[in-house]
Amino acid sequence: MTGRPLVVTVAALVAIAFGVITIISGWRALLIEAVGTFLFLLVVVTVVSDDTAAWKGVLAPTAIGGFIFTAALTLGAFSSGSFNPARSIDPAIWAVDFGDIWIFIIGPLLGAMVAGIAALIVRGES
Questions:
Q1: What is the pTM assigned to this prediction?
Q2: Measured between alpha carbons, how far is 80 from 20 in angstroms, rounded to an integer?
Q3: Where are the strands (E) in the chain, listed by range?
Q4: Could you list the pLDDT tens digit for every one of the 126 residues in the chain?
Q5: For the chain, what are the domain ranges?
Q6: How far apart are the first and last CA of the chain?
Q7: For the chain, which has fewer Cβ within 10 Å, the N-terminal or C-terminal residue?
């Protein structure tokens, strides 16, 4: 995968050292990005906008930061853990390398759409 931004995490270095990481296909990276974004947005919607929760707004930074940290360590080793098209487009523009940028645009957008629909369904809103 030539066009993805390089993100080196401790988990990635350990996985590379033990031969766990292999080059994954674009479709698998797309799925990882979509699922990561889906879960991230569900965390954000839950901790920021749930009026019935006692922690509304208080623990939001901790929950969001904790999720990003965990997702970057686990999913980042396989797809670079972008979860945000803007975070991937800018390095691609600077490197003038758009080979696999579609993964980092389509994946998060699909994940975000599904998360938005899921949040509306769970809350009973239309």
A1: 0.76
A2: 15
A3: none
A4: 455 545 555 555 555 555 555 567 788 889 999 999 999 999 998 888 877 777 777 888 898 999 999 988 888 877 877 888 888 888 888 888 888 888 889 999 999 999 999 999 988 876
A5: 25-123
A6: 39
A7: C
Coil, strand, or helix at residue 72?
helix
Structure tokens at 10: 């401790």
Q: What is the CATH number of domain 25-123?
A: 1.20.1080.10
CA dihedral for 86, 46, 72, 108, sign (positive or negative): negative
Name the one residue in this structure whose structure tokens are 């033990």: 18
Residue type, 125: E
Burial class (CB in 10 A: 0-12, 13-18, 19+), 6: exposed
Q: Is 47 exposed, middle or buried (0-12, 13-18, 19+ CB in 10 A)?
A: buried
- Cα separation of 125 and 98, whole Å? 39
Q: Which two tokens stand for residue 115?
A: 């998360």
